[in-house]
Backbone:
């Protein structure tokens, strides 16, 4: 049982940090005690950084990844292949693919995957903007790079049905990523090969 702390202020700080994923109360207490040992100005800077982040961070108006500006660095880069769009679940997946240095196209972040059990439907994702991008006529290939879970496969099939009438090649990452795997936890070498060796998406009715 976690011991009662001698200060309500300390308890409040620990409880807030313990809300973070993967941070238990013991770890939260250790972090709070560490912060109390730091110079006041460093702690104020630490706190202000997150306040500024929350208030000023933007979502790219094109691909919906996080950005400091209206368009992210990838979407605004003149040397990226803007005719190839890699559809991913989260911003973390963008970072994972960028780390492979095997992809030079652009992205589209769905913001999740279709999961009826979790109450997430197509309308909760950025699918409509993706279809608008496809309708604009500038895209030659869309890569469905979603987690190979049941929900990920369901989302891929849904997107395939929405996109198949456009004159666009619809591909998916190669099966170097095993079924049930999430992209952000796949090693860079495997993920890089899966992107390079992508294959046509085959949707079964």
Residues:
């Amino acid at each position: 049982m976690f011991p009662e702390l001698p200060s309500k202020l300390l308890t409040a700080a620990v409880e807030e940090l313990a809300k973070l994923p993967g941070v238990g109360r013991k770890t939260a207490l250790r972090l709070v005690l560490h912060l109390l040992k730091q110079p006041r100005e460093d702690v104020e800077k630490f706190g202000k950084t997150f306040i500024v982040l929350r208030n000023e961070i933007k979502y790219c108006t094109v691909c919906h990844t996080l950005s400091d500006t209206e368009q992210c660095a990838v979407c605004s880069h003149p040397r990226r292949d803007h005719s190839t769009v890699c559809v991913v679940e989260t911003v973390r997946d963008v970072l994972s693919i960028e780390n492979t240095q095997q992809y030079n196209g652009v992205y589209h972040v769905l913001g999740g995957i279709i999961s009826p059990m979790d109450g997430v439907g197509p309308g909760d994702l950025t699918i409509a903007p993706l279809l608008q991008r496809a309708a604009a006529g500038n895209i030659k290939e869309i890569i469905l790079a979603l987690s190979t879970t049941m929900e990920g496969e369901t989302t891929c099939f849904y997107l395939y049905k929405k996109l198949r009438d456009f004159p666009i090649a619809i591909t998916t990452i190669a099966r170097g990523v095993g079924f049930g795997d999430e992209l952000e936890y796949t090693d860079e070498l495997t993920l890089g090969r899966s992107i390079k060796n992508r294959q046509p998406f085959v949707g079964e009715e």
Q: What stands out?
A: Residues 32 and 127 are 41 Å apart (CA to CA). The chain is about 40% helix and 15% strand. The first helix runs from residue 8 to 17. The radius of gyration is 21 Å.
